[in-house]
Amino acid sequence: MADGDFLMPGEVGEQFLCLARYPQNIGWLDNLNCKGAAVGKCGDSIEVSRQIDVGAVADIKVLPRGCVYTLVCPSAMSELAKGRVLDHALELEPHDVADALGGLPEDHRHCASLAVNTLGKAMADYYRLLLLQVQAVPSD
């Protein structure tokens, strides 16, 4: 935990505490087909690598750098996104992440936004690469 990240009883839910102890999907995919990165207003950052297969999120990894909230929010986001078809993954909102964690303190809700925005950047990368592939196909 970063300095100043003291978790007070009642501030966060049990799921938050579980993911703080045992974060999920931490790392980087070697077989990725899209990626995204973002830096929050607090200076914390998140990188996302994803494998898309048959129009769904087959695998996702996150590399958070910052406070415990920046560790937990992308972990929760990755759990929510994994297995979703792309359209449903795009529908994820910061409140979905916060709800999955049992809530977040007001001064750390931006971490849920950072996680979802980074997912959106990875989605934009996927669609950009898909468009380049389509444009590279010779027309008859």
What would your notes on this structure say?
The protein is 44% helix and 18% strand. The protein is of the alpha+beta class and 140 residues long. It has a three-stranded antiparallel sheet with strand order 1-2-3. Helix 4 (94-100) packs across helix 5. The model has no long low-confidence stretch (mean pLDDT 91). It starts with 13 loop residues before the first helix and ends with a helix.
Short note summarizing the structure:
By secondary structure, the protein is α+β, with helices and mostly antiparallel strands.
Topology (SSEs and partners):
Blueprint: H1 14-21, E1 34-39, E2 45-53, E3 56-65, H2 68-81, H3 86-90, H4 94-100, H5 109-136
Antiparallel strand pairs: 1-2, 2-3
Helix pairs in contact: 2-4, 2-5, 4-5
List the defining traits of the structure above.
about 140 residues, alpha+beta, Sufe protein. Chain: A, three-stranded antiparallel sheet, 3 strands
User: CATH class, please?
Assistant: Alpha Beta
The CATH topology comes to: Sufe protein. Chain: A
Low-pLDDT sequence parts: none
Please write the string of helix (H) and strand (E) elements: HEEEHHHH
Q: Given the C-alpha coordinates, what overall shape results?
A: elongated
Secondary structure: number of strands: 3
Helix tally? 5
What is the subunit arrangement here? single chain
Strand adjacency order, main sheet: 1-2-3
Structural class by SSE content: alpha+beta
Distance N to C terminus? 58 Å
